[in-house]
Amino acid sequence: MLRSLTARAAVLSMVLLVFFLGVWELANQPPEAKEALTEYERLMGGSEPQARVPNPSEIGKLAVAELSDPFYDKGPNDKGIGLQLLYSIKRVMFGYFLAALIAIPVGFLVGMSPLMHKALDPFIQVLKPISPLAWMPLALFILKDSEVSSVFVIFICSIWPMLINTAFGVGAVKKDWINIARTHELGKLRTAVTVILPAAAPTILTGMRISIGIAWLVIVAAEMLVGGTGIGYYVWNEWNNLDLTAVVFSILMIGIVGMLLDMMLARATRLVQYEE
Prior knowledge:
MetI-like fold, 11 helices, mainly alpha
């Protein structure tokens, strides 16, 4: 039954995609070529045809060309889409895992200790709503390095969903399980690892899944600000070159990579839930 539903959903998705691309292609045909403007008309304010959003066929041709050699490097302003994505993924992963190293232990502490929850909650509530990009000027001033500053911004935006979900998951563990651990004279650390962690794992992974999505959103904007390398810089550079086909193609690549990152953590979450 489940496989049948998945197959039907896949077919419906393909039909919708083909329909959408077909409508886009037909509705966005370039206007018929007009007769050349006379010299008089040019002097009187005649204008050249305006730029337009590219058709799917044009984007497809560029995608084939770009993906046939995605890792080329011909200088600072001419790198392949695959190389630019790798720069961005590297920054995201570094900041993301650094956030996990701090957020998950602190989340355990907040979830297990009412005292620490009350003490740290004001700081969390003040820092959580701050836009990650608002930290960029301060990070650039203190760290003096655009690469490290980008990683810091990913760190600061990733830490809150993981910390909050970890604290919630730990706090929601059944008290009976913890009491049983106490009757077996398990220490706090062993109780946290063998009892609380397995029970809270689905909630923790949900927080990690939320964080990776936010991190991937933020890195694009951060790279637009600091420039240099990365998919955000690629988009901005192509916009400055007025290459809308490359801009739309890079937007699609951002979406695909974001979907793959989300799918990996979604899969991990389902595995933990099945083992629960």
